[in-house]
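Second opinion, please. Please look over this fold, written as tokens:

===
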Amino acid sequence: MREEKYRIFDKDQKIMYKAMNLYDILSGDCEYESIDGEYTLPHKDFIFYFNDHLLINYIGLEGKNDVEIYEGDIITFEAHLTCFPESKNTLTCVVIWVKSDARYMLSDHANQQLYDFSFSKNVYEVIGTIYK
């Protein structure tokens, strides 16, 4: 079972917060620290509104330098084609939830392709998120 972790994106202020579990988010019983470290809000100052905030899931994998991967992250990785194993392509993709398959996949919008995760640590490099 994967670890339960979340990010919260404030749509109005364009700030991303970290949170440990869903109960803490809904009850307001924890501190929220912005990912860039600029803000720390005590629980009494933070109220989660579904219309104003996006709840973003940790997918249970880590990339290079032990960086946690979340839905909506933009990542790069080297893809090896099975028909040409010596060739390498560096791809930039977005982590998405594919409801029909009930799993996270990598979406390459430029080529309109979906890729599976290899589940190898240190293969993926998180370079950003679609929310910033």
